[in-house]
Amino acid sequence: MAAASGVVAAPPVCVLVLGMAGSGKTTFVQRLAAHLHGQRCPPYVINLDPAVHDLPFPANIDIRDTVKYKEVMKQYGLGPNGGIVTSLNLFATRFDQVMKFIEKRQNASKYVIIDTPGQIEVFTWSASGTIITEALASSFPSVVVYVMDTSRSTNPITFMSNMLYACSILYKTKLPFIVVMNKTDIIDHSFAVEWMQDFETFQDALNQETSYVSNLTRSMSLVLDEFYSSLKVVGVSAVLGTGLDDFFVQLSKAVDEYEREYRPEYERLRKTLEKAQNKQKREQLEHLWKDMGSVCVQGNTLAGSDDASAMGPSELILTRGTLDEEEEEERESDTDDIDHEVTEESHEEPAFRNFMQETRMKYQRRSNPNE
Length: 371
Known about the structure:
Elements: E1 13-19, H1 25-38, E2 44-47, E3 61-62, H2 69-76, H3 80-92, H4 95-104, E4 111-115, H5 120-124, H6 127-139, E5 142-149, H7 156-173, E6 177-182, H8 190-197, H9 199-206, H10 212-223, H11 225-229, E7 232-235, H12 244-303, H13 313-319, H14 325-330, H15 340-367
Parallel strand pairs: 1-4, 1-5, 2-3, 2-4, 5-6, 6-7
Helix pairs in contact: 2-3, 3-6, 8-9, 9-10
């Protein structure tokens, strides 16, 4: 209908869901997909975790259908993490097909949700994770969602560790970033928001810690102050489904941020790459032209023709095969002087004689079997 009415459908928003193992990442994806189905806006769901046993949500594309995780471990002699990395690397070699599937479904799905492996470092710091992230971000509005376990972040040092990891992912992906503080049904996330907004409150919580790590955390909190100021934070309960409306509000802001800041950067990088490729092609053509020109000059010098010296490579190619008849007669092969019939007979005669002798001996053996 959109194509028939002349209205171009907006590209889908790619939501890359990352998170530590046990943070409720897969449960959050399930709740997100169920919420969108309830809004009559079915998402396009992609599972990139090859080691998951059962998916609690229907996936349009499942890496387990393409790569067998346990077979990869057996064939390459790998452990669990190595098997996941290798499975992702194998899947990344065919990710261009996934991009085509997403393009075909962009009229039907407004959101593309990507669930990543539970071992967050496997996707974040691997080559395949970078390839997949950049492929999506270069074609569609993409947002990174970092799912954080709120109940395990009540300790200020653990909270700071989570924030440092979130900061590293932000600078690694260079994409709009949303921190989803999950499991608010267990504990409210207001304490974490207060720690991010009020430096003194976080310092008071750190005073209860006496280890040397508290001093490092106190210093790092000053460094992350600017990171907190531009960070989008949402409290969500994946079990109860609360906070999803606020999440989609922040998601729309992140998409606007992508269109305003990130897409121009990607377009600039793409144009720079195209210019570099075109420059390389021109240089290769110039080298080829020079090489062909030098061959032409050398050939004309040997021939001693003044008229042919002005010809370029293209004219030289066109003149091939149109030499004068006298030159053709001079360049005829020396093998024309050989009498081919005599040569063939000289080879055939001993061969035929040997054949007749072998046949005669076989006949004699058959006629005299007692000998």
